[in-house]
Sequence to fold (310 residues):
Amino acid sequence: MANEYHDPVLLSSCLEGLNIRPDGVYVDVTFGGGGHSKAILERLGPKGRLIAFDRDRDAWKNAAALSPTDGGTGDPRFTLVKADFRWFKNHLRYLNALPVDGLLADLGVSSHQFDTGARGFSFRFDGPLDMRMDHRASRTASQLLRDLDEAALTNLLRIYGEVNGAHRVARQLVNANAHTSIATTFQLVEALRPVTPRGRESGFLAQVFQALRIAVNDELGALETLLRLSTDVIAPGGRLVIMSYHSLEDRLVKNWMRSGDLGGEEEKDHFGNRTRPFNPTSNKAIQPTDRETAMNPRARSARLRIATRT
Ligand SMILES: C[S@@+](CC[C@H](N)C(=O)[O-])C[C@H]1O[C@@H](n2cnc3c(N)ncnc32)[C@H](O)[C@@H]1O
Fold:
């Protein structure tokens, strides 16, 4: 049955990837609608533990669905940490949950975030140009646009959005902002109109909105921290399971799982032996079937990678 908040993507492959032991300790660093967390809890026995993270207060409310009678607080096996997952190692240490047997990250935004106009993530709805996953964060997308100069904005659009003609687009935005500040999603769409390619309006707007979203939430910075710390946190034989939705993320995940280096450089010890901290279960990413994509179009760009801690 479809979940209004977010349909979990590649659910059975993620669960298989985690290789769940009923008495193990697992982490879901992107709780969202709780779809993956719920399925993990169903596979845990009374001694198992699940610690979930999310930085979005809308997601926190979904903890109640895991244990409806008491607002999600009553299942002693479950803890929700209302924080950015980049701090997960400290939280896990504080919760006495180290090392863990498996870690799941389902990156990016939830359907709820996309589909709620007031969050500002989508060019399809009018709303404040916010895009913060975490309401406690200081800089909205509108503020970011105001703060960046043409060169910085060009880089952001080129790297995070793979926007063609990024420089022209950046110049247009800087000029538009100098006129009146871009405060809403529809004002941004309007400001982009002169540089929006005819016939591929949606694709272009999606790229620009994605670029801003990644920057506002420092999504790549958070992922890099997560990957680096995964080595300290996952027990030997434990699993790292990561689902990403664009090539920049997937490249970092692939490099890390193959070599233990974000740039893909392989480490060797004094004797020339490879010292990588993870063994990928496969060189190829798992992708949703046509059937899953037909039922849940948001699954389309998902790439799932799984590795075992050496
Ligand atoms: C794709 S959704 C996860 C959906 C979830 N697996 C489910 O089944 O409903 C991603 C979630 O991760 C959260 N998130 C993304 N980056 C985060 C970060 N650095 N720290 C904490 N939460 C993050 C978002 O707020 C969002 O709720």
